[in-house]
Specification:
By secondary structure, the protein is an alpha+beta fold.
């Protein structure tokens, strides 16, 4: 019995020791593994200026994108470098008021990243200068690294060549820095050398431009540092007047404004890229009678105002988009300048029926035919072929030598075309094709272009819908580009139709004409004297009501229009569908976009299952906030600051799935495109100004975070294997010891 107790005691002691060893080794292996993951930082530096100029009323998301330009670079002890984007707090920035604001940032480092001895994270504070387009400011600045240049950023100003920087020391005479060569004005800001500054002196600085001048920046320069004393309105007491030549008298010669762009999209697709491309199209003008673009008289950038009101994004067809040249703010066109019309094309085509029905010339050596390529790209490369026929001769496969397909369309090289010849072009993928585009090649252009819904084997005619035929017959009209004759019965009892050749463009043109809903609206028009009278009666706003929709335009906005007694303001409230409203405001016949903070009320009937929670979406699907619903009156009210189209979207809420405290945002249920039933919607006339380059718009590139290096997997397995081996050895020793005692 005593021997058994001894064995039992020995076994228990050995087991305890082994368990302790196992715990120690396990902890050690975790510590060793973690030690292998740790990345030690030896230096931290800020990449990019901590001073930014942003436009007034910038979207919060766009402000965030601008702040991502500021990076923090860390260097690890092994010499590797990594960039991080700080997280910024922008709640204190009032983007609706011009001025200087400060944003605080914090840096979030990956796990197992530690700071080396003597290394600390920098204090992240960015200065944000909110400015108006066309009104440059020099209220903020930063020093350009490794130079003596002080940079005063402003919003893009195209006429920077006509800007002049002036400096006064200790209230002395004004000196033109740009003329002396110690400062330069660029589109993004003023670059001034500190060599022109006098130590321990008070300086005054301003910049003049054709439309006016900045405020006066008063600062002290002391031992290489600038200390701002004030930034106030003022002017030069001395010095020559700044050039005020703001009339554009000539345009760039040989401007090609026809077919400047073409784009293809499926019905209901997001057209953001199309609108962005339109916004980037521009031309050049000059304030000289004969066009010139020199350092002394640089060319003026001219943007294009596009009319997109004729586009129906859910109806297939080719749409002509026309634009007019627009002078930048502060400039105007001279009386003798003839402004050409600028044209672009948008092809809406079904995914299952790609069309080759329009084009544009991106350069002098090629022509690009945009198409919805989903179905074509799905084919193997050897199943896609491009055929060209000259003067009705044999078809030739030019897939390799003269044409190629791309992600968004097909490119035809001009080198395979002969001047003065007629051509037919066809793209085939497998046993299907896109139809034929016929044209004449004259003077480097494709003339008399026509799209035929046909293949190389002959013409295919798609009968028009019965509803369209009936409509045409009822109105006793001849066919538009094709003949849709009366249906008659022959002696044999079979019916015949006199369908003849017609093009897809003609068919879609007529289809849109007869199927598009006719909507008319008169709007509400008041004169300036009537507005003054209504303000006296209604107080701080005037209500405009149409079809149950009401918009309350504020007193500040209406008085800011400066209407004369007989001048008018017109407000239109259109409801194309339930829970959707388009607001248009015109003053003196001109469209007004910014209307200040305005309240809108529209009728609302709740459907079964809805809980009365609605979010307001703008045309670009951005969320404008939440609507206030009055159950008794059956209305929804919300606040907007711009005209355009808005719609209400019910938000599904299930409070059982969410905590009752700390809820700040209602979950958004995004709509998904389903089916092929399209609703004809007419988008508003989009005015792309030069300074609103679609703040669309694009997105900033994210810097990829390198994941920390992990401890080698083999070493981890080896460390975990050691305790198992020791445990086995211990058990074996106990067994041998027990045998020995026996």
């Amino acid at each position: 019995m005593r021997e058994k107790q001894i064995h039992k005691s020995a076994f228990s002691g050995a087991a305890g020791i082994l368990l302790l060893l196992l715990v120690i080794l396990s902890v050690s292996s975790q510590a060793w593994a973690r030690e292998g993951q740790i990345r030690r930082i030896v230096s931290v530096s800020i990449q990019g200026p901590l001073v930014l100029a942003v436009p007034k009323d910038i979207e919060a998301s766009k402000l965030g994108e601008r702040l991502t330009e500021i990076k923090v670079q860390v260097v690890y002890e092994n010499g590797e470098k990594e960039l991080f984007s700080p997280i910024w707090e922008t709640g204190r920035i009032d983007i609706q008021r011009v001025g200087l604001y400060e944003a605080e940032g914090r840096l979030s480092l990956p796990e197992y990243t530690i700071l080396g001895e003597g290394v600390s994270l920098p204090e992240l504070r960015a200065v944000v200068s909110v400015q108006k387009w066309g009104e440059p400011q020099i209220s903020s600045f930063y020093m350009l690294e490794n130079t003596d240049l002080c940079v005063f950023p402003w919003l893009s100003y195209p006429a920077s060549g006509k800007m002049e920087a002036w400096l006064s020391r200790d209230n002395g005479e004004w000196e033109c820095l740009t003329e002396a060569g110690t400062a330069s004005c660029y589109e993004d800001g003023l670059y001034m050398s500190t060599q022109c500054l006098r130590n321990a002196s008070v300086h005054r600085l301003l910049v003049g431009y054709p439309a006016g001048q900045t405020k006066v920046l008063r600062f002290l320069y002391w031992d290489g540092a600038i200390q701002v004393l004030s930034y106030e309105s003022g002017s030069m007491e001395d010095g020559p007047a700044i050039s005020q030549n703001t009339e554009i008298l000539s345009l760039e010669p040989d401007m090609d404004t026809e077919r400047v762009f073409a784009y293809a999209a499926a019905p209901g697709a997001d057209l953001r890229e199309f609108y962005k491309a339109l916004a980037e199209i521009g031309f050049k003008g000059s304030t000289e009678e004969s066009f010139c673009d020199t350092e002394q008289s640089p060319a003026i950038h001219l943007s294009v105002r596009w009319d997109t009101s004729g586009i129906y994004t859910n109806t297939p067809g080719v749409y002509l988009v026309q634009g007019t040249l627009k002078a930048p703010e502060g400039y105007s066109f001279g009386e003798g300048v003839s402004l050409p019309s600028v044209t672009a094309y948008l092809s809406i085509q079904k995914t299952e029926e790609p069309r080759m029905n329009t084009y544009y010339a991106p350069d002098k050596d090629s022509f690009f035919f945009p198409m919805v390529m989903d179905k074509i790209n799905a084919k193997q490369k050897d199943e896609v072929h491009i055929f060209l026929r000259e003067n009705e001769k044999e078809w030739k496969d030019i897939t390799e030598e003269g044409a190629r397909t791309e992600e968004s369309g097909m490119t035809l090289k001009a080198c395979v075309l002969k001047m003065g010849s007629s051509y037919e072009l066809c793209l085939e993928y497998g046993e299907e094709d896109t139809g034929i585009y016929s044209f004449d090649f004259q003077e480097g252009k494709l003339e008399n272009g026509k799209y035929i819904w046909a293949g190389r084997d002959g013409i295919r005619v798609t009968p028009a819908p019965e509803s369209l035929i009936q409509k045409i017959e009822e109105e006793n009209t001849a066919a538009y580009g094709y003949t849709a004759g009366n249906t008659s019965s022959s002696a044999s009892g079979s019916s015949t139709s006199s369908y003849q050749y017609y093009t897809w463009e003609d068919y879609e043109k007529e289809k849109k004409k007869y199927t598009q809903k006719e909507e008319t609206t008169s709007g509400i028009t008041y004169t300036g004297s009537k507005i003054a009278e209504l303000l006296k009666e209604q107080g701080e706003s005037v209500a405009f009501e149409e079809n149950g929709n009401i918009v309350y335009l504020t007193k500040n906005f209406l008085e800011g229009l400066g209407l004369g007694a007989d001048e008018t303001v017109e407000v239109t409230l259109e409801s194309k569908e339930e829970r959707c409203l388009r607001l248009t405001v015109k003053a003196r016949g001109a469209v007004v976009s910014d209307i200040g903070e305005t309240t809108v009320t529209m009728p609302l009937t709740l459907q079964e299952g809805e809980e009365g929670v609605f979010q307001v979406l703008a045309e670009d699907e951005s969320i404008q906030g939440e609507a206030t619903v009055d159950m008794e009156l059956g209305t929804a009210s919300f606040t907007i600051s711009r005209t355009g189209e808005y719609r209400l979207e019910a938000v599904e809420t299930s409070w059982e799935d969410f905590p009752t405290e700390g809820i700040s945002d209602i979950p958004v249920i995004e709509d998904e495109f389903q089916g092929e039933e399209f609703m004809d919607e007419e988008p508003e006339n989009i005015d792309f100004s030069e300074n609103e380059l679609l703040e669309m718009d694009s997105e900033s590139e994210e810097v990829k975070d390198e994941s920390p290096k992990t401890f080698p997997e083999f070493n981890k397995r080896f460390l975990l294997f050691i305790p198992a081996v020791l445990l086995g050895v211990g058990i074996l020793a106990l067994i041998l010891r027990r045998k020995k005692h026996k």
